Amino acid sequence: MIEKYNDINTPEELLDFMSNNIEYGFLGKDGSVFHYFEEDFNDNFFTQYVLERADDVVKNKVGNCWDQVELERDWFLKHNYEIKTIYEMVLLDYENSYPTHTFLVYKDHNKWYWFENADFDNRGIHEFNSFDELISYQLDKYKSLLNSYNITSEEINHIIMTEYNKPNDYINCDEFIDHVVNSKKLDIFSDL
After folding, report:
1. Which of 87, 93, 113, 169 could form a disulfide with 180 if both were Cys (CB 3.0 to 4.6 A apart)?
2. What is the pLDDT of residues 161-170, one digit of tens each?
3. Cα separation, 51 vs 30, whole angstroms
4. Does the pTM of the predicted model rise above 0.90?
5. Cβ(176)–Cβ(89) under 8 Å?
6. Exposed (0-12), middle (13-18) or buried (19+): which is 138, by Cβ within 10 Å?
7. Which of the 8 DSSP states describes residue 66?
């Protein structure tokens, strides 16, 4: 098992490192660490969250999907992979409790791979023949998840997926959402 981030040489080693060392949670504005199993986790998220840098995630051993993607971005770019970072949400003009998600995809030998650590149920490296095939698959998974939240057929038409660039360090929840929502929108409801 790889114990140090700088000793990781393959995507598989990165996934192993992250799954053994990074817990789901977030860093607060005052440096506090919040874990998903704590009673006040959700209450503190919108007021306390700041986006961690890759080295923070390694040091604090905690991050939500937004933070973990930044760690993944750091590693994949340092190892010269072509990557895209994707954000998905239901964008409505009223408050809702539907989950959002970010994930990283990378290209290797003319195939695309969805790298997933933060989403426990889908943890792994998933291979696809094309970027469009990967996005279509991920959209179906997201819709399936949303069905468990009793999303309406009208609301499901408001899913957006964006391809976003590296956000600024230590931005808060609202700033992160503004960044990703205002990024390049993927045409997910056409025939991919």
Report:
1. 87
2. 999 999 999 9
3. 12
4. yes
5. no
6. buried
7. H
